[in-house]
Amino acid sequence: xxxxxxxxxxxxxxxxxxxxxxxxxxxxxxxxxxxxxxxxxxxxxxxxxxxxxxxxxxxxxxxxxxxxxxxxxxxxxxxxxxxxxxxxxxxxxxxxxxxxxxxxxxxxxxxxxxxxxxxxxxxxxxxxxxxxxxxxxxxxxxxxxxxxxxxxxxxxxxxxxxxxxxxxxxxxxxxxxxxxxxxxxxxxxxxxxxxxxxx
Length: 199
Ligand code: ITT
Known about the structure:
- Its EC number is 3.6.1.66.
- The protein has 5 helices and 6 strands; from the N terminus they run E-H-E-H-E-H-E-E-E-H-H.
- The chain has helices spanning 10-20, 44-59, 92-102, 173-179, 181-198, and strands at 2-5, 28-31, 63-72, 110-121, 131-143, 159-161.
- Strand 1 (2-5), helix 1 and strand 2 (28-31) form a beta-alpha-beta unit.
- The structure holds inosine 5'-triphosphate.
- Residues 7-9, 12, 51, 66-69, 83-84, 92, 95, 113, 152-156, 180, 182 line the site of inosine 5'-triphosphate (ITT).
């Protein structure tokens, strides 16, 4: 059975294919090439559902989506759901630079990555539906004073997970996948996906 992966972010696709691989037995992930919906929800969960609904409606297939970002305590949770567009450019490096600038001199560096994983099953012909599910996971840590590491994407070079002396861009992909917000959110939703589609 095919599931459309409702993201245009190549880094997410890479991570999700890695994370989901072992749980996909009997399921095939297909890329989403339809229009990007307007993400005008107030929460990660709302925006993940908007993306999954759009991909499901466009493809007629069940859809999985990820809405994620970094929430900084001292910035009142910003950039939060605006993480991809924080600097106005959708450029990861610009976003990180603005975050470091906005946190210059701050002692409170506490932050967390958040990921909402949404799963939408289209309405069956003549039947009930659609069915919608969402799971949210957090990865607590702190924003480092400067970038380090070359793995991952986005804010990884400045995110130091709790319990680590290094940033998530210095973790190996296996290490990040054992801890990350994305891995936790999708670990929670995959049993729902499997039982909904495969019984
Ligand atoms: P789609 O909506 O097409 O999925 P997007 O990049 O616009 O792609 P989001 O709106 O969910 O997705 O924004 C996610 C942003 O949050 C992402 O661009 C990064 O800046 C940041 N982010 C999320 N997860 C991250 C991770 O694991 N490591 C580093 N940064 C992350």
